[in-house]
Amino acid sequence: MRILVIGSGGREHALVWKLKQSPRVTDIIVAPGNGGMAREGVRCIDVDVSDILGLAKLARSEKVDLVVPGPELPLTLGISNAMTAAGVPCFGPDRYCAQLEGSKFFAKDLMGRAGVPTAACAVFEDADAAKAFVQKRDAPLVVKADGLAAGKGVIVAQTTQEALDAVSDIMEKRAFGEAGSKIVIEECLVGEEASLLCFCDGKTAVPLASAQDHKAAWDGDKGPNTGGMGAYTPAPILPDDKIEEVTDLVIRPVLAQLAKEDHPFTGILYAGLMMTADGPKVLEYNVRFGDPECQPLLMRLQSDLVDIMDACINGTLEPSLVAFTPKAALGVVVAAEGYPGKYNKGMPITGIDKADALGDVKVFHSGTSLKDGEICSSGGRVLCVTALGDDLEAAQKRAYKAVGCIAMPSSYYRSDIGQKGVARLKKA
Ligand code: AMP
Ligand code: GLY
Q1: Of 154, 276, 285, 291, which is best to mutate to test ligand 1, by the most ligand atoms within 8 angstroms of its C-beta?
Q2: Considering the entire predicted model, what is its pTM?
């Protein structure tokens, strides 16, 4: 089987790593890929993730049997529709379903139709009306740009002034471009966050193990929001024996609703949850694997990922196809100093092989390139150093030992990935 993976981050490196383990796979190509994948002998072809026609042409000319889009952008641009039209199976939802991630308004509206618990909200297309609404409500409030904004379009405003500024930044100054033509203003939920991802075949949802991301840049959840500075699985806040119940609450009703609307959802449906005192509530949906949640999750996945993806596309998904090791896994992101703001590229990186050689460790490349055979940084998030362990604490220890093997000038990482989970387990 020949597979085309789309994307260039740590998530896509993990997908390539896992797909390569399938005996059914003969060849994997990645568009555009990165240095880490290239170094492992995977063919990287320079087609942009937003070039839907170029990607469809590539899939046809390379005679691929399966396309696996990593990031949300090609999905919201209709990569699945394009691949289906080209006769190539694609693991991901169509453009209609991808609006669950591409439009906060669409997601909120669908949650309403499907009866999924989420924060109360109001939607505005006019800045003055939004500001008048903010004035009438008590802070804190959460202000969200409707469209895709690379994880930056959400402002948790602690004061009325911050909320007014957020409305102005998003709607008037168009800080996130057209993504800000509409905004959603939400009640602020309180609790610990968890990620629940499910494989979906249009009618059946099979949950993966639970995971937790770390969105803030610095230790103690301080600092600006990032794409994610580390993740681990399982997340003790969402234990194994609660997963089916939560899937019934936040995933299956959405699947049933989309099927009713003649757009059965195929691929990964990911619910970002706030575990509140009133139960789990949905913060957002993603229509793809999370990055970096994907890296530790795939390290724990024992089943053949190609078999699962095939079953999702063919409508034959069943729980027996999806098995995880009871071990825990944890990934620490090594980022360039300054990320998520301005940062330097081209930093040399050493020690990756030493880290990989520790055993039960895999260094996934998020933003690297290959220069004269050497690995250099080429992005804000550079590596996701991921390890397995008998329990969360063991995985954490091993991941940080592996991080200690790696040297890169002007880099930083959080030193508390997994700490909330470890503390919760100790308390229990
Ligand atoms: P989103 O992209 O919608 O998941 O939002 C990004 C982050 O903003 C989430 O991971 C939460 O930390 C925070 N957030 C979003 N919505 C809310 C809310 N209603 N209440 C509290 N925090 C929120
Ligand atoms: N790690 C969160 C996301 O991928 O959206």
Answers
A1: 154
A2: 0.96
